[in-house]
Amino acid sequence: MANLVLDINKLEMAASKLRAIAHPMRIAVIDLLNENKKLSVTEIYNRLDIEQASASHHLNILKNKGILNSKREGKKIYYSLKSVTLTEIIECINRCNEEK
Questions:
Q1: How many domains does the chain have?
Q2: Which residues form the domain of 58?
Q3: 52-84, pLDDT tens digit by residue?
Q4: Beta-bridge partner residues of 76
Q5: Is residue 79 within 8 Å of 44, Cβ to Cβ?
Q6: How far apart are CA 94 and CA 71, in angstroms?
Q7: Is 45 domain-assigned?
């Protein structure tokens, strides 16, 4: 059996990202972006039926943790997922909850 070498920096980064998505609204944002690929802040808060300030707060957290990309186009900022890996993790968690 090969020795498993744990990189503490990679583990910290992974834990940080998992903490960032560990909020129902942020999971909803990730699901929404997984379905739509690219949305403006306005589209996100309208679809999730939340305040603009709340949407911006959650989007900032996800962007700062390297989960989302943002791109300004004119007056609007569009968000997209950097990777579908996190959506796969969320889907896995959902499957685990269904097995209870």
A1: 1
A2: 12-93
A3: 999 999 999 999 999 999 999 999 999 999 987
A4: 73
A5: yes
A6: 30
A7: yes
